[in-house]
Amino acid sequence: MSRLIEFRKAEQALREQLAQLDRLQTDNSLASTHGHEAEGMRLLGEIEALANEGQA
Question: 33: exposed, middle or buried (C-beta count within 10 Å: 0-12, 13-18, 19+)?
Answer without folding.
Answer: middle
